[in-house]
# Entry
Amino acid sequence: MSGGVDSSAAALMLSDLGYEVLGVTLHLYDNETIGLESRTCCSLDDVEDARRTCWSLGCKHFTLNRKELFLNEVITPFVSTYQQGHTPNPCIDCNRQVKIPALYRFMREMSGEVFATGHYVRVEHTADGRHLLKKGLDAKKDQSYMLYTMTQEQLAHAVFPLGEFTKEQIRQFAQEKQLTSAHKPDSQDICFVPDGDYVDFLTRHTGHAPEPGPFLNPEGKVIGTHRGYVGYTIGQRKGLGVPAASRLYVYEKDPETNIVRLGEEFRIYRQELDANRVNFIGMDSISQPIRCKAKIRYHHAEQPCTVVQTGADSIHVTFDEPQRAIAPGQSLVLYDGDYVLGGGTIL
Amino acid sequence: MIYFDNAATTCVSKTALDAMMPALTENYGNPSSLHLLGQTSNQALDEARQTVAKCLGAQPNEIYFTSGGSEADNWAITQMALQGQKKGKNHLITTTFEHHAVLHTMKRLEKNGFEVTYLDVHEDGVVRPEDLEAAIRPETALVTIMYANNEIGTIQPVEELAKVCHDHKVLFHTDAVQAVGHLPIDVKAQGIDMLSLSGHKFHGPKGVGALYCRRGVRLTNFIEGGAQERNRRAGTENLPGICGMAAALQEACDNMEENNARVSAMRDKLIAGITPIPCTRINGSLEHRLPGNVNASFEGIEGESLLLRLDLAGICASSGSACTSGSLDPSHVLLAIGTPVEVAHGSLRLSLDEVNTMEEVDYCLEQLPKIVELLRSMSPVWEQMQKEGRC
# Structure
């Protein structure tokens, strides 16, 4: 429980359904880790909100320390992915390596039957024993992209009470039930980069500021100076500070040489990609090429494509149309209608 | 419910409650008032002060009542440090495994220009007087070393440590929160200059404690205001708390020998029952140990889950120290005695006292191995250890 409206509402719904609920908040980092001076250990107000919600339901609340795991499995890969010139998705890493495994293990340790979160997704258990992940009913809030890494074992025990509702309904429900979190704003940024300035975070974490380097045009001519390659994303157009007759886009970054290449819009389109660290949900593997749709980032309208499995945990994807700004490090998630087939990390 | 968390706090004894009731009801006068009701309260306050003094081998005018152990620690350390600073002494000595009331006070003093030496507590959790002697410098203003550790229960050679200090003309303070009421203390015979204690660790109420400060040691004011506590600590006295604490201390000291015999027998049975669990260690010296303390580490499991499972089984225990969020950090005490971080994570403190019974110990020994086994069966760390042939 983050202390926000979604997880609080989820706890309340389960309690209303007659479950004996144990509230769990994960303590993932200290304020000093994320560059805040306050000596309180984390977002203490949020923990207190979570705790109060639980107590008001007559439930116990626990805070589990997963700082070390979070540092090793989320923050460190976040930094190294940027250093490789890629674009990480730390929320997916957190769900995969920290949040879901921690909840699942804690559920087992406490002899619980199920674990729940406040994600807007649905689970379906098929007659032949598969556990499917489905988009949330609220298309605008659907978070299935964030949970494609869940294993069959985890999905078998997962409950997502918010999946059948819209965010509006949940807010209203929280207000009616007078949850303390009812009016809290949604979290937008990466939790450990609260001001959204990830370059500043990388600087503090690594102890050195990114080094400026050259912007090159497609012909290899220097057309400006950038503030360090980590600060740019594939497809970026704004904030380049390079005067040009036509619009320029970041289409390539080279961490080895600290070169960032700028060029015309067509250069940021790609039709194919490879992904690794693949997790399948809808099936164990793909023996024949399959047709489905895919998302290459959270806010991406899914696109038709053909998928071929190329290794135990790798796939090759060919889109019907070229896609804009495919960023290595982000996740590719495959859909069949509302169902998540699986996904992987874009190479 | 079985309560094995007596180092965190204890229940208020009947004797203590009876001593508190008059001050909460008919004798509500302010001890500073001159009328009869005030005088009655003032007399009760003075009797409590005499009682506490007597139990420590001190004089009544050497006892200052506080809100608890942490306040007494803060008072003693900051005031002695500041006095030292005026004389050009900016060095302090403590240990790595003190209570946070001491460690965090030290951190603040370090920010204000003090240099602090943290003595090693060795693998057995016992400070060596020769280490202290080697650390003392001409500019050392104060030495503060806890009497007995709150997590692993190890008892320090206080008398020898105090002697080293006096040989070098340095003041010696001890945080005796875990020791008072449980171990025989005579501040004069042991050469203790200052001592902190807390009422709720020996069946007194919470929110009350005391600082003993030897006559001749100049104690500066901690809270400015009225004339309470010889002008040193203003604010109307917590009379119910003080009366309760004094009565509880008297009771604890009267029954100490008998209690300790019973409690240490339960402790030893627990230790003997826990030791055979594979990949388990008892932390801290077995020889120099509080009668009620058991501290064990079980490799491959998280202390949090262990505590919660024990709680479900009706056993209240503790592990490490919780931060404000309620999440547990690996204990700084276990790290100080050289316990690896991953082992420190799976630690458990059971703290007993005379209200516990052998039946409770037997029940705990029936439950604990089962819970450890269950949690290990779900632990990826344990699985890895098995694969690698460790355990």
User: Anything to note?
Assistant: The mean pLDDT of chain B is 96. The longest helix of chain B spans residues 36-56. Chain B has 14 helices and 14 strands.
